[in-house]
Every structure is written in structure tokens, then in C-alpha cells.
Design brief:
By secondary structure, this protein is an all-alpha fold. It has 17 helices and no strands. α7 packs across α11 (about 215-230). The radius of gyration is 63 Å and the shape is rod-shaped.
């Protein structure tokens, strides 16, 4: 913050030193300083003044310097250069940037002594002497013969005569010695300063300041500046050089203006090209955005198709689950049948202990009954064979469908045609299921008929048995039958355990399908996705497709397991036939005996 100026000497020195600094700045084409307390705070004008005094261009500084640290760095650059040129520094960069005028005046006085007073001393005469002594010695020598009293310096300069004698010594035509004593001091000061300015000496002093209170350092600065002009071998050459510098500066300014105009035109062309490129880029971005929107729409459409396929797959899984549950029920029914057979076997054992007293039929009736049993067995075999062929055919068609479905997932077949074919095959499957159900009912009827015939045959056999050996043989045969039934029951229980495991796996698969559906529903809420979001959606769709393929494989495995379960059920259905074979074997043994 700038401190107020209260002392007269501070005000006078600030004006003189500022004029001296502006003189050097103007010589090198720089802008003048308005105030030493404010004009040097950023260090930029100080760097330009030092460059003008030393002839060395200082470039590594911050312009503009808005921050305090930037200003201090700039001032330190200037101070370092002054110190390198022999200036004794008593002022810090912080004092300058804070605008402390007394410290700034101290720096300016040290600079003036080095570059103005000592530089103007000839043949080393200024070495070891103070600035005042050096100037006084030169005045005594230069004004030798003029009526000048130097003992009262600087008060003796207030009348203006010393400055008039200096000008007259350099150019007598500019000052009339006869009128010096008759003129008032202020008028003489004004005329002397104006005449000196014609010699190239800048007006550093204010006549009123010299008249009221001559400042020693200010007057020494002016006289040393006058001295430097006097010592120049060709003062006119200096003026011409200054003029040439001015012309050169004007030419440089014109060239810069021309360059600026050229650069402005180039800049306008570049702006136009940039605007065209920007318009093209915006158009490309718009097209790209449109493409992305179309791609997002396609992705959403594919996602809807995938959801439809997953829904259809879920329905198929539900159907498969229903079939598996029905197969489980059938399995339970078969288990109940086995229990009934066991009970029947127990009843047979009890009946063996009783003898039948009457014989219902003879050998012919027994042969006729045997023929009917054989006929029923043939019908049962044919029915089972047809059922087996239908199952094989159905499995083949199901495999073909799975293969087509996989190809459809890869994009080789038309999805719509495959869905129609799948629906037709499902209807065909339903028809086959109904036919199978009818055949199962017919098979059950045949089994009932067979059971009745066996019962009749058993009654005949029981009536014909009369010896203990026959009872023993029958008992052994039934024990073997019981052992086979027990073994079959163990196998059935093992298969039921495997079936329960597959059922648990099916539930897990259903849970994954439900989770997949939830993810799809969440993805359905995503709209107008672009860029990375679209890529993420594509990755999710790809992951869903992979999961769908995995579910298809698991579905195929479940279908294979269902087929195996049906095969086991068929084995259970084979039990009556096995009993028939055992019965036939028993009959053969009886016939032999």
C-alpha cells in the first residue's frame, strides 16, 4: 500500500528521480512512470529501466504480474542485475512492491550514482570520492573563469546563475551574460533549463523547487546529467541518433501494425476454417448420434426379442417341470403298485398253506387259459414296442428342434419360422401325450385282464397242488420273486433320489432364469443410451445370450433326464411281465413234475 508523502525533500526527489528514469525509458521507447511509489510495484518498469541503463535485455519475467509473488520475483530480477553492475543495494523487493517511497528513492539514488555520476567521471577521477565531491570538482574545472561561489552548494543554485553559466559555457548564443544579474531568479531558472533542454539535457528539476528549497541529490543528478551531455564529443549526433531511434520506432510500429493486420486477416481465415471444421464436426457428431440412437433402438429391439425368447423358454421349462412332476406322480403310483404286488405275494403265501378241495378245470381249460395269457402278453409287448418307438421318435424330433433353436440363436434360421415350427411341434407333442395316455390306459386294462387271468390260473394251480413238495417249490419260487422285487425296489429308490437331485437343480435353474428376467426388466428401463452405455448394454446382451445358451443346454440335460426317468418307469412297467415269466417258469416246473 502506498504511503503518503509528507516531507518536501521526498516530494522533490521523487519528481527529479522519476524524470531521470523516464528520460532513460523514453530513450529506449518505453512508457514513462507516473509515480515511483506505484509505477515500480510490479517490477516491470524497473526491469525496463535496468535494461535501458545496462543495455542488456531482461526477458525472464512475468507480465502482467498480478500476484504478489510474481511482482517480488520481477523486482528481484532487476535488483540482481543492478547488483551485478556494482549498485549497492539497501532496498528489498518487498519494500518496493509495498510502495515504500523512501526506500525506493534510496534505490534510485544508488542507481544514479552508479550509472550517471560515476559513469560521467573521466579517467577514474570519481573513484574513492563521494558523488558531491566528484560533481564539485567538475564544476570548479568547467566553470573556471565564471563568477561562481561553490562553497554555499546547493543553496547558491537558487538564483539560477550557476545553471545559466553552464549553458553559456556550452553554447554562448543561448544565454546573454549581460542580462543575468538583472533577471529575477525564477525567470533565470526557467530560461536556463529551457536552453539546456535545447542542448539535449532533460528538465529534471522544477524551477519553483530549486527556488524555494534546493535539494542536494536532485541538483547533483541534474548537473551530472548536464555533464554527460557536455562530455559527449558530438552532442548533435546524439540528438540525431535519438531522432533516428524515434523514426525507427515509428517504422517498427508501422511494420508491427502491418504484421498485425496480416495476422488479423490470417486469424480471420483461420477462424473461418475453424468454424467450417466445427460445423462439419457438429454434423458428423449429429450423424454419429443418430447412428448411435438407431443402434440403441436395434439393441432394444433385440432385447425385446430376447425377452420374448426367454419367456417362451420359461414356458417350456414350466411345461417340462409339469411333465416331470407328472412322471414323479406316475413313479409314486408304480411304487403303490409294487406294494400291492407285495401284498398280493403275501396273500399268495397264505393261500399256499391251504389246500383247494375241488378242481375247477381240467387240462384243456388250463391250456385255453394259458393261450389267453399268451395273447395278452403279445398285445402288451406290441403296445410297449409302439410306445418305445414313439418315444424314440419324439426324442429325435426334440433333438432336431434343439439343433434348429441353436442355429436360430446364431442367426442362421428365421426366428419367426422356428417359433411357428416349435408351436406345431408342441401341438404334436400334446397329441402324442394324449395318445400315450390312451395307450397307458389300454395297457393298464391289459394288465388288469392279465392279473385276472393269473388269478384264475393261480386258483387252478392251487386246486391241483396236493403235496408238500409242490408247496416247497412254490415257496422257493415266491422267495426268489420277493428277492427280485426287493432289488427292484432298491433301484427304484436310488432313481428317485437322483430324480430329487435333478428336481433341485431344476429349481436352481428356474431361480437363475428369474434373476435373468429381473436383469432384463432393469435393462428395459434404460433408454436413449449412447457411447459407453450402449457398449455396456451390448455386453449385457451378449452375456444374456451366453446364459440363454447355457440354459438351453441345461434344459436339454433335463429333457435327457426326463427321458431316463421315463425309461425307468418303463422298467417298472416291465414288472408284470417279469412276474409272468416267473409264473411261467413255475408252471413249467409243475408240468415237468
Amino acid at each position: 500500500m502506498t504511503k503518503p508523502v509528507n516531507e518536501d525533500w521526498v516530494r522533490i526527489q521523487e519528481k527529479t528521480f522519476r524524470n531521470w528514469a523516464n528520460y532513460w525509458l523514453k530513450q529506449n521507447g518505453h512508457e514513462p512512470i507516473e509515480s515511483l511509489s506505484e509505477g515500480l510495484v510490479d517490477g516491470i518498469k524497473l526491469i525496463k529501466l535496468v535494461s535501458s541503463l545496462t543495455g542488456k535485455e531482461l526477458t525472464k519475467y512475468k507480465d502482467p504480474a498480478r500476484l504478489r509473488v510474481q511482482r517480488i520475483n520481477n523486482i528481484n530480477i532487476a535488483l540482481s542485475e543492478l547488483s551485478a553492475n556494482g549498485v549497492k543495494l539497501t532496498t528489498s523487493a518487498e519494500q518496493i512492491t509495498d510502495g515504500e517511497i523512501k526506500f525506493i528513492l534510496g534505490l534510485m539514488w544508488m542507481t544514479i550514482q552508479k550509472f550517471q555520476i560515476q559513469a560521467g567521471s573521466s579517467e577514474g577521477g570519481g573513484k574513492g570520492k563521494s558523488a558531491k565531491d566528484a560533481v564539485m570538482e567538475w564544476l570548479k574545472e568547467y566553470l573556471d573563469g565564471y563568477p561562481v561561489e561553490l562553497s554555499g552548494f546547493p543553496k547558491n543554485t537558487a538564483d539560477g546563475k550557476m545553471f545559466a553559466y553552464l549553458v553559456h559555457k556550452k553554447d554562448p548564443s543561448l544565454i546573454d551574460l549581460n542580462s543575468i544579474n538583472s533577471k529575477p531568479p525564477r525567470q533565470l531558472l526557467v530560461e536556463a533549463f529551457n536552453a539546456a533542454e535545447k542542448l539535449g539535457v532533460p528538465q529534471l528539476l522544477d524551477p519553483d523547487d530549486v527556488l524555494s528549497r534546493p535539494d542536494e541529490q536532485s541538483i547533483l543528478t541534474y548537473i551530472s546529467t548536464f555533464k554527460s551531455k557536455v562530455n559527449e564529443p558530438l552532442a548533435t549526433v546524439v540528438a540525431e541518433v535519438g531522432a533516428l531511434k524515434t523514426i525507427l520506432a515509428e517504422n517498427i510500429a508501422k511494420q508491427e501494425a502491418q504484421k498485425e493486420g496480416l495476422l488479423h486477416g490470417q486469424l480471420q481465415d483461420m477462424k473461418s476454417q475453424l468454424a467450417d471444421q466445427q460445423a462439419k464436426m457438429e454434423q458428423q457428431q449429429t450423424e454419429r448420434l443418430r447412428e448411435l440412437q438407431e443402434a440403441v433402438k436395434d439393441s432394444q429391439r433385440e432385447k425385446r426379442e430376447l425377452e420374448a425368447s426367454q419367456l417362451e423358454m420359461k414356458r417350456e421349462l414350466e411345461t417340462l417341470r409339469t411333465k416331470m412332476e407328472q412322471a414323479l406322480k406316475d413313479k409314486e403310483k408304480d411304487s403303490q403298485k409294487i406294494e400291492k404286488l407285495e401284498k398280493h405275494n403275501d396273500q399268495l403265501k397264505d393261500d399256499l398253506n391251504e389246500e383247494k378241495k375241488r378242481k375247477l378245470m381240467g387240462g384243456a381249460a388250463e391250456q385255453m387259459l394259458q393261450a389267453e395269457v399268451e395273447e395278452l402278453r403279445e398285445k402288451l409287448d406290441k403296445s410297449k414296442g409302439k410306445r418305445k418307438d414313439q418315444k424314440v421318435k419324439h426324442a429325435s424330433e426334440l433333438e432336431d428342434l434343439q439343433e434348429k433353436y441353436k442355429k436360430a440363436q446364431a442367426g442362421d434360421l428365421d426366428k419367426i419360422a422356428l417359433n411357428v415350427e416349435l408351436a406345431a411341434l408342441k401341438r404334436k407333442q400334446e397329441d402324442m401325450d394324449r395318445d400315450m395316455k390312451k395307450k397307458d390306459e389300454k395297457l393298464a386294462q391289459l394288465q388288469n385282464d392279465l392279473a385276472k387271468k393269473e388269478k384264475e390260473k393261480q386258483e387252478i394251480e392251487d386246486a391241483s397242488r396236493g403235496t408238500a413238495s409242490k408247496d416247497l417249490e412254490a415257496k422257493l419260487a415266491r422267495e426268489r420273486l420277493q428277492a427280485e422285487l426287493d432289488d427292484l425296489k432298491r433301484k427304484t429308490d436310488k432313481k428317485m433320489n437322483k430324480y430329487d437331485q435333478k428336481k433341485a437343480e431344476n429349481k436352481k435353474l428356474q431361480a437363475e432364469v428369474d434373476d435373468l428376467k429381473k436383469k432384463n426388466e432393469q435393462n428395459a428401463k434404460l433408454g436413449n443410451l449412447q457411447g459407453d452405455e450402449r457398449k455396456r448394454l451390448e455386453d449385457q446382451l451378449e452375456e444374456l445370450r451366453k446364459k440363454l445358451d447355457k440354459e438351453q443346454k441345461e434344459k436339454q440335460e433335463l429333457e435327457d433326464q426326463n427321458a431316463n426317468l421315463l425309461a425307468e418307469t418303463a422298467k417298472l412297467n416291465y414288472l408284470p411281465k417279469k412276474m409272468e415269466q416267473l409264473q411261467k417258469k413255475l408252471d413249467d416246473e409243475k408240468a415237468k413234475k
